Automatic annotation (TrEMBL):
Domain of life: Eukaryota
InterPro entries, per the entry: HyI-like, Sugar_Epim/Isomerase, Xyl_isomerase-like_sf, Xyl_isomerase-like_TIM-brl
Keyword Isomerase: yes
Job of this protein: Catalyzes the reversible isomerization between hydroxypyruvate and 2-hydroxy-3-oxopropanoate (also termed tartronate semialdehyde).
Record protein name field: Putative hydroxypyruvate isomerase
GO molecular-function terms, A-Z: hydroxypyruvate isomerase activity
Reactions this protein catalyses: 3-hydroxypyruvate = 2-hydroxy-3-oxopropanoate
Family: Belongs to the hyi family.
Alphabetized Pfam families for the sequence: AP_endonuc_2
Length: 277
């Protein structure tokens, strides 16, 4: 069994540092070999690529742009009337992915419109999402890129988000039927919405292109107090043959580097030399 590979989500980790280049440097110094960032678009792509290269990191995941944050948008993939904006954002994401050598883009579904009833608009939103995903799959295939769908929990994190369970996401992927569209498995969201992580991991892992982790319910480090037994979950992922990256998308409870003891312990068990050794 191959050991898991971890990536630093620098949109969440190292919040004590002021900018993306500094966070990438810190991730590299902490022993990470890969990083992910939600929205790198405030920096020129060449600057992000240079910072990652200098830190000894490869970028493995970015998101499509969120849309108009001031109007409450959090992705546009399934939002009626925003198809043109989604496609523009996709082109921007592809431009960055190409410059960064980043193989995966999270295609954000977005939120149920304010004031709308989820059940009443579900069919229309799914139709829009399917249309946009088919378009995205074609665009991404030309660049040899993978698009990811991530269910986000609607119980705590984002009550209006359209895509909120692995079952819903898997059904949509089946309807689209494109091999370069895969599932993004954030165990924080999956535990909150459905639990049954052993069964769901085994069922859906063949569709999974990326994993993310955080403790439940506080969204802290994997070894912080909470519901999830990460040594067991990491072993399960290894046993099931997962070969992708595991993104550290959590909220550090203190200094990020000091809170990485759980990861250093994992690396030590794998016999990996630590940073600075």
């Amino acid at each position: 069994m191959a050991p898991l590979r971890f990536s630093a989500n620098v949109s969440w980790l190292f919040p004590e540092l002021p900018g993306l280049p500094a966070r990438l440097r810190a991730a590299g110094s902490s022993g990470f070999e890969a990083a992910e960032v939600a929205w790198p678009y405030a920096e020129p792509p060449e600057a992000v690529a240079r910072a990652a290269r200098e830190a000894g990191l490869r970028l493995v995941l970015i998101n499509t742009p969120p849309g108009d944050r001031e109007k409450g948008e959090m992705g546009l993939g399934a939002v009626p009337g925003r198809q043109a904006a989604f496609r523009e954002g996709l082109e921007q994401a592809v431009l960055y992915a190409r410059a960064l050598g980043c193989p995966r883009i999270h295609l954000m579904a977005g939120r149920v419109p304010q004031g709308a009833d989820r059940a009443a608009v579900r069919s229309e939103m799914e139709t829009v999402f399917l249309e946009n995903l088919r378009h995205a799959a074609g665009v991404l295939a030309q660049e040899n890129l993978v698009g990811l769908l991530e269910p986000i929990n609607t119980r705590i994190t984002d009550p209006q988000y359209f895509l909120d369970t692995p079952q819903q996401a898997a059904a949509i992927l089946q309807k689209v039927g494109r091999p370069n569209l895969q599932l993004q498995m954030d165990l924080f969201h999956w535990q909150i919405m459905d639990g049954n992580l052993t069964g769901n991991i085994r069922e859906f892992l063949p569709l999974v292109g990326h994993v993310q982790v955080a403790q439940v319910p506080g969204r802290g480090e994997p070894d912080s107090p909470g519901e999830l037994n990460f040594p067991y979950l990491f072993q399960l992922l290894e046993n099931e043959g997962y070969k992708g990256f595991v993104g550290c998308e959590y909220r550090p409870l203190g200094d990020t580097a000091e809170g990485l003891n759980w990861l250093r312990s994992y690396w030590e068990r794998q016999g990996r030399p630590q940073a600075g050794q």
